[in-house]
Amino acid sequence: MSLPLLSARLGKRQAALEYKWMKRATSPIPLDQMLARRVAGEPLQYILAEQPFGPLTIKTRPPVLIPRPETEHWTIRLAELLHPTATPARPLSVLDLGTGTGCIPLLLCHLLPAGSVRAYGVDISPDAVNLAAENAALCGLSAPADPSRNSFQPIQASFLDPNFPHLNLGVAPPFDLITSNPPYISWPEYVRLPPSVSHYEDPKALFGGPDGLDFYHAIAALVARNDFLNPGAVVVVEVGDGQADSVQRIFKATAQMNTEIWLDPWKKMRTVIARPGI
Structure pTM? Predict the structure, then answer.
């Protein structure tokens, strides 16, 4: 009975595709229960408990933000940019702000040469940090110190704390790369989100303040500190639709950085790249 209901909700083509994925899933959840949950609006990624991200399979569960294809796209492009300079002789120190599932640093670790990345991710949510640690283990990238491997360590902390990162967290600046897919949904957008997002994903991972820009101000203030970035460092942040120009202005005004914009596969301005020195 649930498949016709799913078709009515999603359309026949999308429903048939998702039904095929549910049938193939290794989940212990019975198919009829998966269908009922999807008809009720739960995201498929939470039902299947995983999401492809590049060549990786990332474990997912509510309320941690589900990795999106646009994030995958710019992470792969970033790895291509970094590949010529990533070397075990001087591993890149990477900090992912608001790491969620850990998908961004884990994919960078997977794509860059072995031993060339020491990545850390911070998130205020214990659910996110626990899930990111599980994903690191599943990807074989947990962080004991084996210099022949890339590694990722998630840490529970708020990068909005005025004392961050000098909080005895086991990681300290300077960094070679800062990445972030921060909360960027404005209040007018948040109240219009579909229930499949607003009822399941953590509001703290979505809502970026009245205009959606609160976290970009915080990140720009962090990277403006004299001791936060190594020479030649790169800051990469995902932005919401229509925010790229505002985010560029924030990084230029607060941190005196050069910026450029990358488009996503749908030709939207999705990623702001910032480097020290105007």
Answer: 0.94
DSSP assignment of 179-235 equals EE----B-HHHHTTS-HHHHTTS-GGGTB--TTS-HHHHHHHHHHTSTTTEEEEEEE
Q: Please list the residue range(s) of the chain that carry CATH number 3.40.50.150.
A: 69-276
Quick one: which of 128, 114, 136 has its CA closest to 62?
128
Q: CATH number for the 69-276 domain, one of 3.10.20.70, 3.90.1150.10, 3.40.50.150, 3.10.129.10?
A: 3.40.50.150
Read off the pLDDT of each residue in 17-44 and give the average, rounded to a whole number.
91
pLDDT at 163 > cutoff 90: no
Rounded distance, CA 68 to CA 4, Å?
27
Highest mean pLDDT among 19-33, 121-135, 188-202: 121-135
99: amino acid identity, one letter? T
More confident residue, 182 or 144: 182
